[in-house]
UniProtKB/TrEMBL annotation:
PROSITE patterns the UniProt entry points to: ASX_HYDROXYL, EGF_3, EGF_CA, PROTEIN_KINASE_ATP, PROTEIN_KINASE_DOM, PROTEIN_KINASE_ST
GO biological process terms, semicolon-separated: cell surface receptor signaling pathway
Protein name: Protein kinase domain-containing protein
Lineage: Eukaryota, Viridiplantae, Streptophyta, Embryophyta, Tracheophyta
Subcellular location: Membrane
Key words of the record: ATP-binding, Disulfide bond, EGF-like domain, Glycoprotein, Kinase, Nucleotide-binding, Repeat, Serine/threonine-protein kinase, Signal, Transferase
Signal peptide feature range: 1-25
Positions of the Protein kinase domain: 455-724
UniProt topology in membrane: Single-pass type I membrane protein
Length: 753
């Protein structure tokens, strides 16, 4: 290598040179870092503006040379003012001390770059390890040494200065006192700035620590305490009595090392103490040192002042700062922005959320990047701020569970209610609600009202054909009986409706009145007036009380009148009770009979067709002429005949295939032995005669041929006639009530409005 002219004058001093090396920092960037059209890399090293490798791509003083003869290519600072000087020389044997070197040759080599950081305005370069070995030489022997110094700005102020904060002076050896020599004193042994002492008498070393035993280091004093900036430096060794070698250290450990190196980079190990040129061989390119760079010929514009034309901080989101050491300024991105402040749009928002180890959102929050920062909003259901503290549950878990539970219950209840309402509506429609609503004499109750009326179906007063019969009480205190009917489907719907309409039209004192219905259930309920004393059946057969003959007659007449009314209400004579029997004749407190369960058998016949023959009516009362389910009004008359027998004999009607109950009675009458059959409670001759007369009416009802039977009106009239006759014969009985047909209550025909 040729020596630049600048150094010719320094040659003699170079003899005193001691060498070392240094370091620098940098980092990599993904955003555009160089000027448009300029290469931003040399090999794998990023080259951010103001640095550049091509003309027009760098600010003056920031040129980088990319040497492509290496693979990968290596980057060097351009040599115009920043370089190392490397020289070789002999120690002079006759010099007191070992710091005199006869320089044999020397050269200038460029500073190789490790990396550059525009955001911190730092770079790292490779510096040398100064090595000084004595083995093979006697104490005063000449021997070859390699020397190195570093120039950062040979020709006046340049961008680069050694970073006082990020480097240390370090020495390694068993008896070494390295010195950093700087500035104009670089070629002398005096005027040094830093020194440290590493000393070791006994072989007690600790790997990893650099505290004086085999290794020493010292950092730079704060800049305010030194009146200069470090733009040229080298490492030399303090003359010392290296050869007071009592324990052979000089033989095993002949070399001393000194270096300016990035702090915390080198890790001492005892291995480095032994052998020749160990560190130089370990780090052939050198060791890293850190340089600050800045724009030296300018300063930050004051507030409101127009920045100069060559102002370097051109990125948005950036500002200007005084250089860390030396003159000038540097550019920095704002906090939470990163990138290259020296180019347009170089500072970009940092997505803090991509760096959770640096920017922390506490658990329960979600990291949200914002321009110039980030936020940690708490997840839904939590409150607080994930950036300043922890998010906490809006509701503690038990409350959540409770709320959740309550909500579920409410939803379920609503669903059930809706379902229920829909069901009620469906039943209502299915059971003919819309039609029955228009019918005059019947009131339609909701299932809720019915529940109220029956006090939640509390009192059962009997068992009907279709199920239990409940007692209820209307608002006006009137007592009512509520009965289930049959399940209504599309085919039976019309019959049901018709039946309800007919029944509601039946208004007669001897017929249990239909008051209303409730259709909002699978099986509709019908509401009737409540008749206190229960049925004639109960009175005759479940009671031992004497039943006076006049009462029996009144019951017979009233029942007959009710049935007659029923039969007369339909010109086509299709209406019949279908199940006339003592159990279906109810008695109020004054023993006024009321026909009940009207039409039931008809509904039964429709509702349960396959069981019809068993459920229609009561076999004990059934008309033997009944064939194939064809019932006529005369069938009711037949059944009423049997009721008359029960009234006369007070013996419960029974059924057998021979119809013994009826035939025995008929036979007794024919044989003039009817009085033998009469209830033993009836003792007066007058009453017995009356009963014998009623027996005759019964016989007329029981004729095998329906055509020959009386009709109900005739039955009624015949019994009334019997009573009149007995009165005319001077009887003092005073019959009240049902002595006349069609007394005060006017006849209402079904459907009459
Ligand atoms: C550059 O490449 C070399 C070798 O491939 C590698 O050792 C070094 O770490 C790389 N440097 C950077 C800054 O990526
Ligand atoms: C590249 O490096 C080689 C080897 O050190 C050297 O000979 C050559 O001159 C360098 N080239 C440039 C352009 O610096
Ligand atoms: C010792 O050094 C001086 C110069 O410093 C030189 O003149 C002299 O010749 C040297 N002596 C020997 C013996 O080399
Ligand atoms: C250095 O020493 C070697 C051998 O001791 C000798 O050959 C060489 O000439 C010397 N060089 C100078 C510059 O004194
Ligand atoms: C300088 O001298 C040393 C020692 O003799 C030698 O190894 C090296 O190659 C020389 N360098 C140049 C550039 O002559
Ligand atoms: C230091 O580490 C090296 C290699 O790991 C080991 O050989 C040596 O014994 C260690 N020295 C001490 C003093 O622990
Ligand atoms: C620094 O140097 C200037 C002149 O170059 C001098 O006036 C000043 O006193 C020095 N300060 C210190 C702390 O040495
Ligand atoms: C020194 O040790 C640290 C921690 O183990 C490691 O990261 C670093 O790379 C080491 N330095 C060198 C030069 O090996
Ligand atoms: C700073 O130096 C650059 C390059 O030498 C020059 O273009 C610029 O005008 C200078 N600025 C000032 C304020 O001196
Ligand atoms: C992240 O937050 C947790 C808890 O808030 C804390 O312990 C941890 O040190 C934080 N980590 C960082 C890198 O800030």
């Amino acid at each position: 290598m040729t020596m630049p002219w600048q150094y010719s004058q320094l040659l003699p001093i170079l003899l005193l040179l001691a060498t070392t090396h240094t370091i620098v920092a940098a980092d990599t960037q993904q955003q555009p870092i160089a000027l448009a059209g300029c290469p931003d890399k040399c090999g794998n090293i990023s080259i951010p503006f103001p640095f550049g490798t091509k003309a027009g791509c760098f600010r003056e003083g920031f040129e980088v040379t990319c040497n492509y003869s290496f693979n990968p290519p290596r980057a060097f600072l351009a040599q115009d003012s920043t370089f190392h000087i490397v020289g070789y020389g002999n120690y002079s044997a006759n010099y007191s001390g070992r710091n005199y070197v006869d320089v044999m040759n020397y050269s200038q080599v460029p500073v190789e770059l490790l990396d550059i950081s525009a955001s911190t305005s730092e770079l790292r370069g490779y510096g040398a390890v100064r090595s000084d070995c004595i083995d093979g030489y006697s104490k005063y022997d000449d021997h070859l040494v390699k020397l190195q110094g570093t120039f950062l700005g040979w020709n006046g102020p340049k961008p680069f200065l050694l970073s006082p904060l990020r480097n240390v002076l370090m020495g390694v050896g068993w008896n070494v006192k390295p010195k950093m020599v700087l500035g104009g004193s670089i070629f002398t042994t005096t005027g040094y700035m830093l020194a440290c002492l590493a000393y070791m008498r006994y072989n007690v070393l600790t790997n990893g620590t650099c505290t004086g035993r085999g290794c020493c280091q010292t950092s730079f004093p704060p800049e305010r305490d030194v009146n200069f900036t470090i733009n040229a430096f080298s490492v030399t060794f303090e003359p010392q009595k290296l050869l007071d070698d009592n324990d052979g250290m000089s033989t095993n450990s002949p070399c001393s090392y000194g270096m300016i190196v990035e702090s915390s980079w080198y890790n001492f190990t005892s291995e480095d103490m032994f052998g020749r040129m160990v560190l130089a061989n370990k780090y052939p390119r050198g060791v890293p040192f850190v340089l600050d760079f800045a724009i030296r010929n300018g300063s930050c514009p004051t507030e409101g002042q127009q920045p100069p034309q060559d102002y370097a901080c051109i990125s948005g989101n950036s500002n200007c700062a005084k250089a860390a050491s030396g003159d000038g300024y540097v550019c920095r991105c704002w906090d939470n922005y990163d990138g290259n402040p020296y180019i347009t749009n170089g500072c970009q928002d940092v997505d803090e959320c991509q760096h959770p180890h640096l920017y922390n959102c506490s658990s329960g929050s979600i990291c949200k990047n914002t321009p110039g920062g980030y936020e940690c909003p708490c997840k839904s259901g939590m409150r607080g701020n994930g950036k300043e503290g922890a998010c906490s549950e809006n509701f503690p878990l038990p409350a959540k569970v409770a709320v959740g539970l309550a909500a579920s219950i409410v939803i379920i209840v609503l669903m059930v209610m809706t379902h229920q309402l829909l069901k009620l509506k469906r039943f209502y429609e299915q059971n003919g609600g819309p039609i029955l609503k228009g019918v005059k004499n019947i009131r339609i109750y909701t299932s809720k009202q019915l529940k109220q009326i029956t006090d939640n179906y509390k009192v059962v007063i009997g068992e009907g054909h279709f199920g239990k019969v409940y007692i209820g009480r209307l608002e006006d205190k009137q007592e009512v009986a509520i009965k289930k009917t049959i399940e209504v489907d599309e085919t039976s719907k019309q019959d049901f409706i018709d039946e309800v309409i007919i029944q509601s039209g039946m208004r007669h004192k001897n017929i249990v009145r239909l008051l209303g219905c409730c259709l909002e259930m699978d099986v509709p309920m019908l509401m009737y007036e409540y008749v206190v004393k229960g049925s004639l059946y109960d009175v005759l057969f479940k009671n031992k009380d004497n039943v006076p003959v006049d009462t029996r007659l009144r019951i017979a007449i009233g029942s007959a009148e009710g049935l007659a009314y029923m039969h007369s209400s339909d010109v086509k004579s299709t209406i019949r009770h279908g199940d006339v029997k003592s159990a279906n004749i109810l008695l109020d407190e004054s023993f006024t009979p009321k026909i009940s369960d009207f039409g039931t058998s008809k509904l039964l016949a429709r509702g349960k067709s396959e069981k019809t023959e068993w459920v229609i009516g009561d076999k004990s009362y059934i008309d033997p002429a009944y064939l194939g389910g064809i019932l006529t009004q005369k069938s009711d008359v037949y059944s009423f005949g049997i009721v008359l027998i029960e009234l006369i004999t007070r013996r419960e009607a029974t059924y057998d295939d021979k119809r013994t109950y009826v035939t025995n009675f008929i036979q007794a009458c024919q044989e003039q032995k009817a009085r033998n059959s009469i209830d033993n409670d009836i003792t007066s001759e007058k009453d017995i005669v009356l009963m014998e007369m009623v027996s005759e009416v019964a016989l007329e009802c029981l004729k095998a041929n329906p055509e020959e039977r009386l009709d109900m009106r005739e039955v009624e009239n015949r019994i009334i006639h019997i009573i009149r006759k007995s009165e005319q014969h001077g009887q003092d009985r005073n019959y009240q009530g049902n002595l006349r047909p069609n007394s005060e209550v006017p006849l209402l025909k079904p459907g009459e409005k």
